[in-house]
From TrEMBL, chain A:
Domain EF-hand: 223-258
GO cellular component, one term: glucosidase II complex
Gene Ontology molecular function, alphabetical: calcium ion binding
Source species of the chain: Spodoptera littoralis (Egyptian cotton leafworm)
Comp. bias (Acidic residues): 307-348
The protein, known as: Glucosidase 2 subunit beta
Compositionally skewed regions (Basic and acidic residues) per UniProt: 349-362
BP GO annotations: N-glycan processing
Region of interest (Disordered), residue spans: 307-362
TrEMBL record, chain B:
Chief localisation class: endoplasmic reticulum
Keyword match Endoplasmic reticulum: yes
Pfam families, alphabetized: Gal_mutarotas_2, Glyco_hydro_31_2nd, Glyco_hydro_31_3rd
Name this protein carries in UniProt: Glucosidase II subunit alpha
Domain Glycosyl hydrolase family 31 C-terminal: 703-793
Length: 526, 927
């Protein structure tokens, strides 16, 4: 509240000083700034009670250019109350309530000019003209909606047909799926049977292979320990079986960052919290840290750290953007990510085993099992493909294409709009993108989210969300404002708020004669 | 190997957070002269006044000051200097020390002073025992000790208030001919010049220093001082800190990206004026120098100052502050202010550099800015947004993107094809437009400004005399050399309506980036060896023919806004008052422009620091100050935004602004409850706009800070000396903005207990007797503001779309009674935009309340203004014994008035006196 609270605290006696009541020329006498409907509340023969009921004042205090009521109801025709309203009749056009602060401020706010009766400002009464324009506009809109509604009917028919078609497709796919699943099960049984035979036959080969693997591993380990011990002994110049800091400093290889100095962090890197290492720790821990350095020294390893750091940094920076770019991408994309690993593993395994030479009988069993696996994989893939199609159709069927499916045919259709710098593309119910005319990648401005026209007219606004993130800011998003038009097209693209795009889109699908926007201009007229 | 890389990435991620990159800016050690002089100890020589050369003539004492070799008996004279000490009006003295015969003239700052200072009488009282004693005609004395030179200034009470050179830090490095070494007859080096004398480097930048070393320095002591203040602009506390254990305060106008809090680093502005204050008296010094300057402070009361040092210097006395100024070039030129009250020293400084003229009224209202309102439709929708949400606003601002690819004085032909129409749409509702004009000029063939400046040689030159090229918003840019009067004139003419098409008297100007900011320059500014125009009286050859940027740096922005100001006057035949906002600031800036605290951040600390920063600027003459409401970088959440609007509504310059990469934040883009709070904050501002306007009128006359520290009004109250989270507006309102998140109460200090002062909460009229600190409950909608008992404040309760539309509206006069039941205030009224007030077309009225009567009388009865405003109501708070009747007397007319009393809080309301404000009136009360 701007009013100091004192005004809320006065309940007291008032005296009559003078009168400042004006009556507008009209059949019903009423104070200035009062609408016809509220006129009965202002009776010159009675004291006036503020609408909020808190205070009763002499009627002469109404419109006396002094605010007495907390709710501003005593000054409908002056600017005295900050929270009051002035009613303009605007004969010939629409009536209007304006804040009291616009009364006598030198700006003509009412088309009948009644708000400027004492400011010295002469306002031209433009209500007739504005009313005429408004009626003409209403007429134009009505005609547009009428013409558009025929096209809309066609869209509704097509939309319904498309839905029916999808429903039929779905039915067919469900049928196909049942068959495919059956086939897959059969193939799976066959595969299992043949695989168990194969396993039995391969057991001997596998055991031999395992033994060979273990032997090699042990050999490697011994070699490594030996190498470690050799180096330990080399650095342990006083042969006390413990490597100390001093000994380390003598050995230049520990200079991790190659700056010629051994910083304490570098030592900590190798030693942990300890001041020295014994033989055992050296072999188990330190050596593995140290060895790459030696390799660098010997030229076996290229010191690439600078490089790697930079790349790492870039990758980190880019990661944020990439993440968001992928989220909510096309449904097809995620379908491709379905797990296919177990079969592939088998295939690889089988191939690896091909390296072995089996006896003829075993080889036959392996071949049979391989063939069974392939057939099973194919059957599984078929099931997955059918399922993906089902999901896609189900998702489309779940989409809200409007009360009568009038927007259904627009799904997947794309429209472009060009301005000075960019080409914008709206793919309805899919996504919005922006591409610079100077080249560069397409930037996602949002993926289909929801209808956002609110309770009044839900289907007036589409919202596409979760586009690519802005630097230092939110994810890009786009609202598409839909209006009735005989042609379907993108009318304009703006960015009223940073990273929040606004598109104007016209289509006959929006030419619903019963919608609020169609009714708007022809009503509330005097 | 990978793990090392990861470590490094983690470290980078940490350092990549918000904050200043300190590496871009010099420390004292990296600034050659600061390092050289900060450690200077006069071991082998001293500055001595030659008593045989003393001459007192008029208001000036002139004498030769020599440096003498103290290492030998004969005290050989090493160098000759000329000293002038002048007595000026209003307790002010000036001391200038230059070389007697410099190799080339040394730079004297040109624009800071508002004309020649007015002389006072000066009399030599005695000359004995190596001491001179002088007095001016006002009873101030000066005692000069000859060897070593020391100058003591005594105020009217006879107390030593300021001492010059008590710590022997006076240095004027003589200009020399370049010689790498000076040999004696046998070829031995007697003197080898220090490295850096003829050139120094910082990062990849080399400064050629063609004149060699030319630094100056002097120390000041303030006996009996508890604190010193001033030398804006820094993000530190208002009361300055001891610098011995860290960096000195730096004065060097710089564009510091993401500047940090609690810092003595230099930022955009530099005003080298310093004040001392203690219970006994105040004093001040103005270091009249536009070169890079560093200031060291030693406050002997600080626990950080070692006690042995305290004993050595002060003899154990703790109340004393020393300050020492070091500048890279120029002469020693110091003004000394002897107070004795804080308001005296503030006035003494402002009267030298000129008080801010009366600003156009709209500029004190609310400003809406963003980098950037993208096109005409955007401007229109923001303009309409204020009306749709019933929030008052006076000005929409356009940042750099409105131009045709950063070419100033042009419009983007696609986004702003019809500026005149856009502006007319704003002015139809009483609103204005401010457009940015930065000083850098895009180097683009075909751009008239660039072509003219190139052809006519109007750009600042590089060290070799070619047009200097730097990098700024437009890319490759050059910078007009405003020091050349011809260039300034040309630049002024660019502002004519003809040359800047689409503009009108309702378009005002924002001069940003005028430190100047040069993205690829040393410390993001212009190289010091760039060349500026110099009048030809010293010859056209070599170093005598030009000034270097190092001499004039802190003054550059002042020359820029001066040319803009002149242009805005000329474009409308000097009829309308220009409004200019500048980012860089120097002494004298207030004569032309308002200043804001630059590119801050949407963080609570930046909201809080806006108070000490503006207090400091206000003490240095720049009252018209504010911060970017909401914070420039980052996004303020609802609570921070609310508190910032509430704080901004009570700071002189009230503008919301935001960075191009941040989320939009016009007041209606928050939740409705927050929008309502922001609306309320703006309405509070508009209700008090005539109070603000009156304050700025009075400021234009008396020069006193509009936004003032508590100790200015309560100089004996020691608790107030370090308070910088609350302040006074004039001497009527006390404001304690809430700058902390999530608090339910704040501490407010209510001064004036000695005089039984009452402070009235402006929302409830509840009276709080002054008694030091008070814990005060706050809600999110509460802004703790108190009206002093004894003060009358005028309001306009009918807040409209813009201030212009409120011109004729009636007043609510709020009378807060003091303990004696009296009160007084003032009101200034004029047309709000022209200079007609200089032709006596204004009202400056005094409002006085006594139990018997209230009067509205004109201070200057030759002046009048035909206002249509009238008195809507008079609210009298703190009334113990209400009158029975009230009668208005205006001219011949007498009217009985209605009154209502609210006993709960002792408030009497006089209902609708309807007295015209165009004529004096009187209301007589009877009991």
């Amino acid at each position: 509240m701007i009013y100091p609270t004192w005004i809320n605290q006065f309940y007291s006696v008032f005296f009559i000083v003078g009168s400042f009541i004006t009556y507008v020329q009209s059949d019903v006498p009423r104070p200035r700034g009062v609408s016809l409907s509220k006129a009965p509340l202002y009776s010159p023969t009675k004291d006036f009670t503020c609408f909020d009921g808190t205070i009763t004042i002499p009627f002469s205090y109404v419109n006396d250019d002094y605010c007495d009521c907390f709710d501003g109801s005593d000054e409908p025709g002056t600017s005295a109350c900050l929270n009051g309203f002035f009613h303009c009749t605007n004969a010939g056009h629409r009536p209007l309530n304006i804040p009291s602060s616009r009364v006598n401020d030198g700006v003509c706010d009412c088309c009948d000019g009644t708000d400027e009766y004492a400011s010295g400002e002469t306002c031209v009464n433009s209500c007739e003209e504005l009313g005429r324009e408004a009626r003409a506009e209403a007429q134009r809109m009505a005609e547009l909606y009428k013409a558009g509604s025929h096209l809309r009917l066609e869209l509704i028919e097509k939309g319904n047909a498309k839905r029916n078609e999808m429903a039929e497709q779905l039915q067919q796919l469900e049928k196909d799926k049942a068959e495919a699943v059956q086939l897959k099960d059969e193939k799976e049984n066959l595969k299992n049977m043949l695989e168990s035979k194969e396993n039995e036959a391969l057991k001997v080969y596998r055991e031999a292979e395992e033994q060979e693997k273990q032997r090699k591993a042990e050999e490697e380990k011994q070699k490594a320990i030996k190498e470690a011990l050799e180096h330990f002994n080399k650095y342990d110049t006083n042969h006390d079986e413990v490597l100390t800091m001093d000994e380390i400093i003598a050995a230049q290889v520990f200079d991790k960052d190659h700056d010629g100095n051994l910083a304490s962090e570098e030592l900590t890197y190798f030693f942990g919290e300890n001041e020295s290492v014994d033989k055992e720790t050296f072999v188990t821990t330190t050596w593995s840290l140290l060895k790459p350095l030696l390799m660098v020294k010997d030229g076996l390893f290229k010191p690439v750290e600078e490089h790697e750091e930079l790349e790492q940094e870039d990758a980190d920076e880019a990661a944020g953007d990439l993440d968001t770019e992928y989220t909510g991408q096309d449904d097809e994309a995620s379908d491709l990510d379905l797990p296919q690993d177990d079969t592939e593993e088998h295939e690889q395994e089988a191939e690896a085993e091909h390296g072995n030479v089996y006896d003829e009988e075993t080889q036959k069993l392996v071949d049979e099992a391989t063939e069974a696996r392939r057939q099973h994989t194919d059957a599984e893939r078929t099931v997955r493909e059918i399922e993906a199609n089902i999901r896609k159709i189900q998702q489309n069927l779940e989409k809200d294409y409007g009360l009568q499916q009038e927007f259904a045919t627009l799904d997947g259709e794309c429209w472009e709009y060009e301005d000075k710098e960019y080409v914008y593309k709206l793919c309805v119910f899919q996504k919005v993108t922006q591409k610079s005319k100077n080249g560069g990648a397409e930037v996602g401005l949002g993926n289909w989210g929801e209808w956002a026209g609110g309770d009044q007219n839900k289907y007036a606004i589409m919202k596409y969300t979760n586009g690519v993130s802005c630097w230092n800011g939110p994810s890009r998003m786009t609202t598409v404002h839909i209006s009735c038009g005989l042609e379907t097209k993108l009318l304009s693209v703006t960015e009223p708020f940073r990273c929040e795009y606004k598109m104007e889109f016209s289509t006959p699908a929006a030419c619903d004669e019963s919608s609020p926007s169609a009714q708007h201009s022809s009503h509330d007229e005097l | 190997m990978k793990s090392w890389g990861l470590l490094l990435v983690a470290a980078l991620a940490l350092s990549g957070s918000y904050g200043v990159d300190r590496n871009n800016f010099k420390t004292c050690d990296q600034s050659g002269f600061c390092k050289r002089l900060r450690g200077f100890k006069p071991e082998k020589s001293e500055y001595t006044l030659n008593l045989d050369t003393v001459l007192v003539h008029g208001n000036v004492l002139s004498a030769e000051v020599d440096t003498v070799d103290t290492s030998t008996q004969e005290r050989k004279v090493l160098w000759h200097y000329a000293m002038r000490l002048s007595a000026l009006v209003d307790g002010t003295f000036r001391v200038e020390i230059d070389e007697v015969d410099p190799l080339y003239p040394r730079y004297r700052t040109q624009l800071a002073l508002n004309g020649d200072p007015k002389a006072d009488g000066l009399k030599l009282l005695s000359n004995e025992n190596g001491k001179l004693t002088l007095a001016n005609s006002q009873g101030h004395k000066v005692v000069i000790t000859a060897a070593p030179l020391k100058i003591e200034f005594l105020n009217q009470a006879g107390d030593v208030a300021v001492v010059l050179n008590d710590n022997a830090q006076l240095v004027v490095e003589p200009l020399r001919v370049k010689k790498e070494r000076i040999d004696d007859e046998d070829g031995n080096a007697v003197e080898v010049e220090e490295e850096g004398t003829w050139g120094e480097s910082f990062k990849s930048h080399h400064d050629s220093k063609p004149r060699g070393n030319e630094a100056v320095s002097l120390d000041f002591s303030f006996p009996d001082a508890d604190n010193v203040y001033g030398i804006p602009e820094h993000t530190d506390k208002f009361a300055l800190k001891t610098t011995t254990s860290g960096e000195p305060y730096r004065l060097f106008n710089l564009d510091v990206f993401e500047y940090e809090l609690d810092s003595r680093m230099a930022i955009y502005g530099a005003v080298p004026v310093l004040y001392s204050h203690g219970p006994k008296h105040s004093a001040g010094v103005f270091w009249h120098n536009s070169a890079e300057t560093w200031v060291d402070i030693v406050n002997y009361a600080d626990s950080t100052v070692v006690s042995s040092l305290v004993n050595l210097v002060t003899g154990g006395q703790k109340r004393r502050v020393d300050a020492r100024f070091i500048s890279e070039s120029g002469i020693v030129d110091v003004f000394v202010f002897l107070g004795e009250k804080p308001s005296d020293v503030f006035r003494q400084y402002v009267m030298l550099t000129g008080p801010a003229p009366l600003p156009p009224k709209f500029s004190l209202a609310y400003h809406q800015c963003r980098w950037n309102y993208v096109d005409e439709a955007d401007v229109r929708s923001v303009d309409n947004g204020f009306d749709e949400h019933d929030i008052p606003a006076d000005v929409i601002w356009l940042d750099i993107e409105y131009t045709d690819r950063k070419k100033y004085f042009t419009w983007d032909p696609l986004k702003f094809p019809n500026p005149a129409e856009m502006i007319a749409n704003l002015t139809s509702k009483g609103r204005k437009l401010v457009t940015i004009i930065d000083p850098h000029v895009k180097r683009e063939a075909g751009y008239f400004l660039h072509e003219d400046a190139t052809d006519l040689g109007y750009y600042v030159k590089d060290k070799d005399g070619k047009d200097y090229e730097g990098w700024c918003w437009p890319g490759s840019s050059s910078y007009p050399d405003f020091f050349n009067p011809v260039v300034s004139k040309y630049y002024s003419e660019r502002y004519s309506f003809e040359n800047f098409p689409g503009t009108s008297k309702d378009v005002h100007i924002w001069n940003d980036m005028n430190e100047p900011s040069v993205f690829n320059g040393p410390e993001i500014t212009m190289p010091k060896d760039c060349r500026h125009y110099k009048p030809p009286q010293d010859g056209n050859d070599g170093l005598a023919a030009y000034w270097e940027h190092r001499h004039v740096h802190n003054e550059y922005g002042l020359w820029n806004i001066r040319a803009t100001h002149e242009g805005m006057l000329q474009r409308a035949d000097s009829k309308y008052r220009p409004f200019i906002l500048t980012r860089s600031a120097f002494a004298g800036t207030q004569r032309y422009a308002a200043v804001w605290t630059g590119d801050n951040m949407a963080e609570w600390g930046f909201l809080a620091v806006s108070v000490p920063m503006c207090l400091s600027l206000a003490s240095a003459g720049i009252s018209f100050c504010g911060s970017d409401v909401g914070g420039f970088f980052k996004y303020p959440e609802a609570e921070l935004m609310t508190r910032w609007y509430q704080a901004g509504a009570f700071q002189p310059f009230f503008r919301a602004h935001s960075h191009i990469e941040t989320k939009r934040r016009e007041p209606w883009l928050y939740d409705p409850a927050t929008t309502a709070l922001l609306r309320d904050a703006n309405r509070r501002r508009y209700a008090l706009l005539d109070f603000w306007y009156t304050l700025f009128y009075e400021h234009s006359v008396d020069g006193l800070p509009v936004m003032r520290a508590l100790f200015q009004e309560y100089p004996k109250e020691e608790d107030t000396y370090t308070i910088d989270d609350q302040y006074l507006l004039g001497n009527k309102l006390l404001v304690r903005p809430v700058v902390e998140p999530g608090v339910s109460n704040v501490k407010v200090y209510l001064p004036g207990s000695a005089t039984r002062t009452l402070w009235y909460d402006v929302d409830t009229y509840h009276a709080y007797p002054a008694n030091g600190y008070l814990t005060f409950d706050v809600t999110l909608s509460k802004v703790p503001v108190f009206q002093r008992g004894g003060g009358i404040v005028v309001r306009k309760e009918r807040v409209r779309r813009s201030s212009a539309l409120m011109a004729d509206d009636p007043y609510t006069i709020v009378v807060a009674l003091d303990a004696n039941g009296t009160s007084e205030g003032s009101l200034y009224i004029d047309d709000g935009e022209t200079y007609e007030y200089r032709n006596n077309k204004y009202i400056y009225a005094k409002l006085a309340y006594e139990p018997s009567a209230m009067t509205y009388s004109f201070v200057n009865d030759k002046a009048s203004y035909p206002t249509r405003s009238w008195v809507e109501r008079i609210v009298i708070a703190g009334i113990k014994n209400p009158p029975k009747t009230a009668k208005l007397v205006q001219g011949e007319k007498q009217t009985s008035l209605q009154m209502t009393l609210h006993k709960g809080n002792d408030v009497l309301v006089v209902r609708k006196p309807a007295a015209s404000m165009a004529q004096p009136w009187k209301i007589i009360f009877s009991y």
